[in-house]
Amino acid sequence: MPGLSHGAGQSPFPSAFTRIKPMFRTCRFLASALSRCIASAAVAVFCLAGSSAAETALSADSPTIILINPNSNAAATESMTALAQQAAGNRVRILGRTNHNAPPLLTTPEDMVQAATGVVEIGRQAAAEEGVAALIVSAFSDPGLAELRDALPDTVVVGIGEQAFHEAARNGRSFAIVTITPDPALIESFRSKAEELGYGKQFKGVRVTPGDPKKLVEKPDQLDAALAEAVEQAVREDGAEAVIMGGGPLSAPATRIQSRFDVPLVVAVAAAANAALMELSE
Q1: ∠ at Cα 44 (41, 48), nearest 5°?
Q2: Nearest one of 168, 216, 212, 218 to 190, comparing CA atoms
Q3: Structural contact between residues 48 and 82, judged by C-beta atoms closer than 8 angstroms
Q4: Helical spans, DSSP H, in the chain
Q5: Run means of pLDDT, 10 residues per run, the chain, 282 residues
Q6: What's the whole-model pTM score?
Q7: For the chain, how far is it from start to end, CA to CA, in angstroms?
Q8: DSSP 8-state symbol, 14
Q9: How far apart are CA 222 and CA 218, in angstroms?
Q10: Is 186 helix (H, G, I), strand (E, B) or coil?
């Protein structure tokens, strides 16, 4: 059964709060699925990367990037750090930091404000540590990103949400988003974000997998099949030259199905790690 298609060109929401509000609802079911799959996802990532301390050959003076998880889910921190290290290879060391003063899920405006405060505090402390070269804010809504950039003008600071859009739109290519979340407000927030970043003309819309997303993430084979179908539709019918995988639990499936497509499947954490490395090399 084909997924839902939502094309580009509709008007963005009028306020920043309205644009991020759908992210709170998404976290309620995506984060629970992420928690259930986190151990196996982390193991899979390390297996794919083949990364142990010896295998990646990181030297004692390798620069360090601190990945800040804005929520207090330590398992999520571990998984995202593993994915970022896979993307970085042996060029830098990625260390994760968990915001223990925030809720395990960011589902309300109060949670977001609380998370941003903790992100800034962690970021300030990390930037003062010897060898730390960059910071990654690792939540799709990028809480605390702007504040950290203001506070640390001499430190590279990137956010995974922002970088996913930048990576997808690189070199003027058209892009779409594939997600398992059939929330109209969430879909509109994606469209609005593309417009904000200047990518409105390149944005080809959102493809949503059919069925109950909670059940889908519990069955990897069915999840992979549904995502592959949605990606195929985004490429064939919408003309996308890159596809953002819109959700934390979609990182591992993206790596599993990438080989089926010639277009890149953009994973936000990996995009942020690569962006940080690029800025550090300039």
Answers
A1: 140
A2: 168
A3: no
A4: 16-49, 53-56, 74-88, 109-127, 145-151, 160-168, 184-196, 213-216, 220-236, 251-257, 268-281
A5: 53 42 47 44 42 52 92 86 93 96 70 88 97 92 91 95 93 94 78 93 95 81 95 97 82 89 93 94 86
A6: 0.73
A7: 46
A8: S
A9: 9
A10: helix
